[in-house]
Amino acid sequence: MQRRDRGIAQSLGLPLTKRVKESRVLLVGAGGIGCEVLKNLVCSGFGSLPQYYGGEIASEISDMRRPEIVVVDMDTIDLSNLNRQFLFRKQHIKKYKALVAKETASQFNPSVNIDAQSGNIFDDKYDVAFFEGFDLVFNALDNLAARRHVNKMCLAADVPLIESGTTGFNGQVQAIKKGVTECYDCNPKPAQKSFPICTIRSTPSQPIHCIVWAKSYLFPELFGTSEEDSADVTVTEVDNVEEVAKLRIEAEALKTIRGLMGKSEFAQAVFDKVFRDDIERLRGMEEMWLSRRKPEVLCFEQFAPSMDKSEDVVERGRALAMKDQAIWSLAENLAVFSSAVDALSNRTLASPGTPLEFDKDDKDTLDFVASAANLRSHVFGIPLNSEWEIKQMAGNIIPAIATSNALTASLSVLEAFKIMRGASFEQKGVSKLTISHVAPTHNYMVTNGKEGFMLGGSKMVFLNSRSTERMITTQNLVPPQPDCAVCSPVYAKLRIPSNSSATLQDLVTLLQEKLGYEDFSIQADVGIIYDPDLEDNLEKGMIPAGYIKAGNGFLTVVDEGDEGRVDLVLSTSFTPNTTEADPESGLQLMPEEISLPSKHKSVAESNGQAMTTTEATGDASKVAAHFNAKRKRDAEEEVVGAKKRAKADEEVMVVEDDGAILLDD
Amino acid sequence: MAADHHAVPPPLQDIPTAKEKKYDRQLRLWGASGQIALEETHILLINNGPGVTGVETLKNLVLPGVGQFTILDSTVVSEADLGVNFFLEDASLGKFRAAETAKLLMELNPGVQGHAVTEPLETFIAQDKVFTPYNLILVTAPIDRNILAQIQTHAQALQIPTFYVHCVGYYSAFSVLLPPAFPIVDTHPDQTATTDLRLLMPWPALKEFAKAKTAGLFEGKLSAQDKAHVPWVCLLLHYLEQWKEEHEGKLPESYAEKTEFRKLVRSGDPHEENFHEACAAVLKSLNPPTPNSSVRDILNAPETQNLDATSQPFWVIAMAIQQFYIKHNQLPLPGAVPDMKAQSADYIKLQNIYKTKAREDCAEVLENVRRLEKGTGRSPKLAIDEKEVENFCKGAAHIHLVRGRPFQVVQAGQLVSFGDRAKAMAMELTMPDSLIGLYIAFLAWDEYVATHSSPASEAGGEGLKVPGSGADDFEGDTEKVTGIAHKIMDSLIKEAGTSIEDPEYSEVKDKVGSFCMEMVRAGGGELHNVASLTGGLVAQEVIKALTKQYVPVDNTCLFDGVASKTAVLRI
């Protein structure tokens, strides 16, 4: 009988096949790409216990690094997943993706080792030590925040990451390794689109303006968290200051109406407030309409002839809401609006303390937003849309198909082969493999010394299956951006016994003694806790003050001396008992030897990757300039609320108190 | 679902909600008409070799809801199958692979019907009208060359799109046989490419509107507020008039003239957003609305020019458009207006001006269609739907025609001919990014199978021997396959009537040789990952062929998993 993995061994060669089988890999996300990656990993033998290599290998491997595939996903299964997430069936709807993925994949191959975890990758238990337990991490995520987080964790753990994503017919795969390639954050990601507040609230001209109004202003004011407490609207230069002030008063009035919720006149009160009174006020601002069409006032009563009792309107609205591909008439929109207000009011009254949030898949909230947006569009002479179209705009729906996921996931795992092949040469010191039947490889992949050859010849891969000529193309991986705030620092660990009484002073002393810091600052998750002008916190305990927490905490040490060494990021973790490493405080830096190159040298250079001098110098001066500016600012400001500053530092884009309307939900 | 395959396609609103929700993310790409086309399809997979690519392709078609599929495969599941094919389980061992994979694939989507045929290929194909139930055929290598030739003959007669797929180790390839005329109206061009505002050929209503909006602009009489809200379309029309006055009635044509013209627009106001928009639009919007060569080819195609009573609607409408084009020297106006800075009322007016013109153009084309229907004696039952004409008019500048070409089926001891493609393919040999070498390696692989297998009638489908499959075959087979590949390469160069000199010639030879060696090393085995990727590529093209949306591969796609890249060749 033929061996189960004959095909794999023949194509990959025995050394790589062995490595693949012994590997321990993490898959973050079990959605569209994740299901496909899991299938490919299972069918390529990743993390399957070595069986025919005998017991010797199994005994060499500690429990912590047991070969297996770990899948983490916090989501549950939705009906709209089933057209591509092939490990899930109808009966799995509402169950955890990770668990069902394991269950289905194991049916196909019971001998495979899968550890499924229905958790949030941001959870404390997924700390740096957790990430360090893997040979390779696959990102199969659908959002920026989680991608950036895993990127940072992999940098801290120094584990290679394969990042992937799809939109419609397009896809992309990128391998990331600390000090070798660009990281996910080396290139700024496009900012979300926001609109000036007056466009949204006073002078809309496109359907999207009305949708944003309904979704991000009216809905939260009535059923959710009021605008002022959450992310909101950008006040831009073009906005009229007086108008902005009036808009605040308008929002206040809406809060009063919120008090009528549950009463039969609630829908009418809301309707007349936003489509009659507010519009009448706008119409009164003559100068606004000199060159624009005046908005049309709508009044609930004007539809009275077409309805008898409010009960009927609700019923009619409910029936109409099923026809989401049709463009509703004005009266139909009013009926859907009434029924949605009714449904949402009942839900709010049933559980008063929990504000509702817009969710494109929550039909009541979508009905509300679609009908309110359409009514507003009518008021301003803007074309109406079907609910189906509004759903795409309001929910920021990205088309997704099975083929793109299959292609992108396969490309991810192909890159994994290359990285593992590359890693095996690094570790075993093999520079070149001969081509033969038993130890095959692509010699040009391994010995190619050309620029851009890194991670075993891994490439940045682009998919565009809509194209007919160049469906899959590649680009060389690029060395890290020397000024990247995320990957240019040196990452190390700070361990502390969970019962330690160590103070910030202890840490400062440790850094001074062990690493020769003189003029420096320390930033924790809560903000800047120490700098040459800030010594108020020195006596505080590291743990009680929340500077070190269990899980994913980071402390950033910035050298402010003339020498200007690169930033040091310390990932913090608890050790169970007081160790003897430092009898005073129990604080322990890992590794013992930390080399902090000067900022003039890039991190890449310190890792043996060549960088051109001109580039490095240019960047160094830029870094220095930024540095001085930052220091000056820090010195000028009084440490009033460390929290506030921490926030401002984290977010590159500083927004005014009115914030920006986010299209993403 | 199978029962109402031939029912009248339901309108968009009538797709039941749960199904619509399940398919929501794909409906946003190919719409209800694409979905209906998919659901009316019955695909036949003729699965050979390790068979992973075929099954992976079907997975990607079962998920989006293809109507039915049939797997023809007489292989019995072995241990090796279990290691590489996700759609088999331990209990499948020793059972028919067709039945087992069909069963597990069907679990993916209860709306899809799967069937398995386990009889040997050669007896299956000997039956009468055996391919008529199917709309599309997938064939995976290795396959007896005579049977492949027969399948091709049937597919051509029935005009069924057929795919011939290879997947060996890190490499894969597929060729698509489409009907000799495969027209596509819905090509989904890039949104940026579809904007057609006819600024060089404005009609009276548009001219008047622009004039009214820009009145006083030249004299500086517009208020700052009004000036900042003149739609950029009007700004460009205004400055074009000014340009014509200064240039003897000529429009800016060359790049230099357009750059000069842009300066003129910028001089109107250096800061306002609408002026920025106008400047940004100069290079891409000031092009004469002439159809590209592939559209002109369609308008002049024999099928367009020689209509009869049963011509496909596509050709009748193409002829009606051609008549429109001859009369007006432009295609019908699509009518869409991009977002721009403007007061809403003006923007809506502008939209209406374009929409009205588009409707008028479409009405004229429709008139032509009706006249052509009458002239050719078309039965009123076959009357062309107005919607179809409208859709065609909107996309007229982007319609596409693929002329399907047959596969190259190797014959033992006889070198394949490249015919009219020889010159182009010989040129590919020396292009650094081309994968023609990989294509030749696959031809050589097929040739090896043809010369090393016992006749199918004696040994059955399993009689096929692929290079590198025996324990000690590697070196000998590498030499054989490389030898055949080099012969094919030389004959291609000769057929093209060209020559390649050293050192380039040796480099090309080496490249072909390294493809062959890698291929032999895989011993006919499939790497799951590459099979899965190939299944993605093939399924994507199947969807294009079935929905008649997007432009399909014409006609061969190669994938090199070592370099992670694809290339498309017209063989």
From TrEMBL, chain A:
Zn(2+) binds at C183, C186, C484, C487. One of its GO terms (molecular function) is metal ion binding. Pathway: Protein modification; protein sumoylation. Pfam families: ThiF, UBA_E1_SCCH. GO terms for cellular component: cytoplasm; SUMO activating enzyme complex. The keyword Metal-binding applies. Residues 324-391 form the Ubiquitin-activating enzyme SCCH domain. The keyword Flavoprotein does not apply. Coiled coil: none annotated. Residues 626-647 are annotated as: Disordered. PROSITE patterns: PROKAR_LIPOPROTEIN, UBIQUITIN_ACTIVAT_2. The active site is at C198. ATP binds at residues 29-34, 73, 81-84, 97, 142-147. GO terms for biological process: protein sumoylation. Keywords: ATP-binding, Metal-binding, Nucleotide-binding, Ubl conjugation pathway, Zinc. Residues 9-423 form the THIF-type NAD/FAD binding fold domain. It comes from the Eukaryota. Heterodimer. Belongs to the ubiquitin-activating E1 family. This is Ubiquitin-activating enzyme E1-like. It comes from Meristemomyces frigidus.
